[in-house]
Design goal:
Keywords: NAD, Oxidoreductase
Strand order of the largest sheet: 3-2-1-4-5-6-7
Pfam families: Epimerase
Family: Belongs to the NAD(P)-dependent epimerase/dehydratase family.
GO molecular function: oxidoreductase activity
Protein name: NAD-dependent dehydratase
Shape: globular
CATH architecture: 3-Layer(aba) Sandwich
Number of strands: 7
Distance between the termini: 47 Å
CATH topology: Rossmann fold
Length: about 260
């Protein structure tokens, strides 16, 4: 791969991939509206507002693959999400369509299915049940990815990311955690695969307790290596037992599902 674009490169996940994918492509093109620091060897740093269609069209030129992490990654006002997540994602797909149709990794979220109960095991066929306006934007992004594959043959892996940090930060993350190492290896598997079509996957490590099934995606050859159980004793000692009557515990989306409507 000659050039791999990463949008949202200033964020947590972008920083993980900036370090972890060094040398995977000849050039990492890093983009955000926030400060990303200077470009290092094998890097291009491009400030770009995803709501600017012309700028995004330039951003996506000469790219062999795109990791789309850009946008607002928390619950927010609808008008803000409209620009960053709805319009920004549309502009990204239009840019890809106009510039060689590179494969895209779309950073979806577990919040697209957050109103499923924890007692339900999900796969790619499970009903979308967003737990927030933010989750709604991820449902939209997945639908857009499906449309651009069926209509224009732009391949996408829509990755419903759980919680990607060095270690879990609470009891819920013992089930949703994806290690940075597994995240990096998944990115390589996505772009190394001969084909993906529009594939919906869950971004989660090989945890003993998890709510999501990726058996349908075995053809890309990704096998997560890490397991949150190495942190279980530490996390359970630091956080009280969960109340099974709490909506944040009943539903997979946790606190996103338990909170009221953001606009109220």
């Amino acid at each position: 791969m000659k050039r791999l674009l990463i949008t949202g490169a200033a964020g947590n996940l972008g920083k993980i991939l900036r370090e972890g994918l060094k040398g995977y492509a000849d050039i990492l093109r890093l983009s955000d509206i926030a400060d990303m620091g200077p470009a290092g060897p094998g890097e291009e740093v491009v400030t770009c507002d995803l709501s600017d269609r012309a700028a995004v069209d330039e951003l996506t030129k000469d790219c062999d693959g795109i990791i789309h992490l850009g946008g607002i990654s928390i619950e927010a006002a609808f008008d803000d999400l409209l620009q960053a997540n709805f319009l920004g994602t549309y502009n990204l797909y239009e840019g890809a369509r106009n510039n060689g149709k590179p494969r895209i990794l779309f950073a979806s979220s577990n919040h697209a299915i957050g109103f499923h109960k924890r007692t339900t095991k999900l796969d790619d066929t499970s009903e979308l049940r967003p737990d927030s306006l933010y989750g709604v934007t991820k449902c939209y992004g997945e639908a857009l990815a499906s449309y651009y594959y069926d209509k224009f043959d732009v391949e996408t892996v829509s990755l419903r990311i759980g919680s990607c940090f060095e270690k879990p930060r609470d009891r819920r993350m013992l089930s949703t955690w994806m290690s940075p190492r597994d995240f990096i290896s998944l990115m390589k598997a996505v772009f190394d695969a001969p084909m993906t079509g529009h594939l919906v996957m869950y971004g989660v490590s090989n945890n003993r307790t998890k709510w999501w099934n990726n058996d349908h995606a075995d053809f890309i050859g990704w096998q997560p290596q890490d397991n949150s159980d190495i942190f279980r004793d530490e996390i359970e000692a630091a956080f009280p037992a969960e109340d099974r009557h709490d909506p944040a515990v009943i539903y997979q989306g946790g606190g996103f599902a338990a909170k009221g409507h953001f606009e109220d």
